[in-house]
Design brief:
The protein has 279 residues and is of the alpha/beta class. Helices cover 27% and strands 18% of the residues.
């Protein structure tokens, strides 16, 4: 993402461009508020699913240019951002009835690797649903050989309780440093997992990771992963959009949030696409 002395320059340019083209600025926007990040980033992601916008005046950062492209969208088509959280056994027992209703979506950890099951998953899944939250499950993947993917995914789908109306299943792809397989095999492992999910439910999963992790995997431009919604973890701003994606859909902007009804630190997220894209 845009950093350093250019930040204020691009904020001004993007703000001017938005006003000129009648693109609404987020209510309560504060240039230095971590929740929103850089205004250019927010504007880019808000229009991502509608094809982008025409190239603003002046040269753009290469990553931002991927998104701000081609088509001017109507302001009425712009989706608002949605607040969400993700939880796991690290959060313990959650008082879901006390969790604020301005949180619209919840992903809960279901499984990890080949055998681990989060002991709080059923409790979190039922509690979140019972209190009106849109909920889904995530699987913490092992970056092993592609031949082992079926074992991981079978394990995930034995426990994730996915049904119509839930958030899409998430493949949590971050544990690559200790992998014993090479980079191409790591990429093939995630691609195989994506195909498994698509065959299983007829939908592509969400991929959760960091920009640098995905960049290191060197996915091809035609990789099946580029069709998946992308959930990026970066605090507080996303450094760049990794290939082969053109933008991300959900941003985990903090791992130290505070939410009523939940003990300890909570992962905080914003979705810049309608929840219908993620369900």
């Amino acid at each position: 993402m845009i950093v350093g002395p250019w930040v204020s320059v691009w904020k001004r340019r993007m703000r001017a461009y938005a006003i000129k083209n009648n693109i609404p600025i987020p209510t309560g926007f504060r240039p230095r508020t971590p929740y929103w990040g850089h205004y250019a980033e927010v504007l880019a992601i808000r229009v991502k699913t509608h094809g982008g916008v025409k190239n603003p005046t002046g040269k753009l950062d290469g990553q931002l240019r991927k998104v701000l492209y081609h088509t001017v969208v109507e302001p009425s088509d712009l989706p608002p951002p949605f607040a969400g959280i993700d939880v796991s056994n690290h959060n313990g027992t959650i008082a879901w009835g006390a969790v604020p209703k301005d949180i619209k979506f919840v992903w809960a950890k279901a499984t990890e690797g080949y055998t681990f099951v989060d002991r709080y998953f059923d409790e979190n899944y039922d509690g979140a649903k019972r209190n009106g939250f849109t909920v889904g499950a995530y699987h913490f993947m092992r970056a092993d050989s592609p031949t082992g993917v079926r074992g991981q995914m079978d394990h995930f789908f034995r426990h994730n309780r996915y049904t119509d109306g839930d958030l899409l299943p998430v493949l949590d792809w971050e544990n690559t440093k200790g992998s014993t397989v090479d980079v191409p095999s790591q990429a093939a492992t995630l691609e195989a997992a994506v195909r498994y999910v698509e065959q299983k439910i007829g939908r592509l999963p969400v991929i959760y990771s960091g920009a640098y992790v995905l960049h290191a995997n060197q996915f091809s431009r035609n990789s099946v992963v580029k069709k998946c919604p992308l959930w990026i973890a970066a605090y507080p701003h996303v450094p760049f959009v990794p290939d082969p994606w053109k933008a991300y859909d959900v941003h985990q902007y903090s791992s130290t949030g505070s939410v009523k009804g939940i003990n300890g630190n909570v992962d905080l997220n914003t979705s810049f696409v309608p929840l219908s894209v993620l369900t």
